[in-house]
Specification:
- With about 200 residues, the chain is α/β, with parallel strands linked by helices.
- Strands 3-2-1-4-5 form a five-stranded parallel beta sheet.
- The protein has two domains: about 120 residues, HAD superfamily/HAD-like (Rossmann fold, 3-Layer(aba) Sandwich), CATH 3.40.50; about 60 residues, no CATH class.
Length: about 200
């Protein structure tokens, strides 16, 4: 880890800043358990959707290959809108970081549904959405996901910090030279940010 505070901070979004409805609300919407949902879904549709290779309407058409009807996208979007919320203690941290010199970006594997998060929570008050996978075409832990972000933010990997709840994504970031925090909760994140001189 560098002895000076990083100049750019990259945040994963789902289950790091924002509650992810994949385990409860989305399966409930389809009337399935999470295991059954995974068993019935198209094998690559979600990943293709996250990389921006599949339009939202096409995702709804093919996600359940054996279903004669597409997903009701408007109804699903409402479920997502209602479910998205900041994780406990995260927004005050973002408020504090906004008043520092560090620049904040999202570095997230997510489809165009990030726009629903923005509509609900106005996350752009705190960070920029430049490096969502549906925009860059690269998903963590692919090294290109991190290098596109650091290049686009005009910062070296060594002068940046990446926060994610998944250890595999943090490992991918460290492999390209980034400092990382594997997110557990807001208290732990505050401690780690303070240790690095950001708070």
């Amino acid at each position: 880890m560098s002895t000076r505070p990083p100049s750019v901070l990259f945040f994963d979004v789902m289950n790091t800043l924002v509650y992810d409805p994949i385990e409860e609300e989305i399966p409930r919407f389809f009337g399935l358990s999470l295991d059954r949902l995974y068993a019935q879904k198209h094998p690559t549709a979600w990943v293709d959707f996250e990389r921006g290779e599949l339009s939202e309407s096409m995702f709804y058409e093919i996600y359940f290959p054996d279903s004669p009807q597409p997903i009701d996208g408007d109804a699903l979007r409402k479920v997502l809108f209602d479910a998205y919320r900041f994780l406990d203690g995260v927004e005050p941290l973002l408020e504090q970081l906004r008043n520092t010199d560090v620049v904040l970006y999202a570095l997230s594997n997510y489809p165009v549904w990030f726009e629903i998060i923005e509509e609900k929570l106005a996350l752009s008050r705190y960070l920029r959405w430049d490096f969502v996978s549906c925009k860059t075409g690269h998903r963590k832990p692919d090294p290109r996901a991190y290098l596109v972000a650091t290049s686009g933010a005009d910062v070296s990997p060594e002068d940046s910090l990446f926060v994610d709840d998944r250890q595999s994504n943090c490992t991918g970031a460290r492999d390209v030279g980034m400092d990382t925090i594997c997110f557990q909760d807001a208290r732990q994140l505050r401690t780690e940010l303070t240790r690095r001189g950001l708070l």
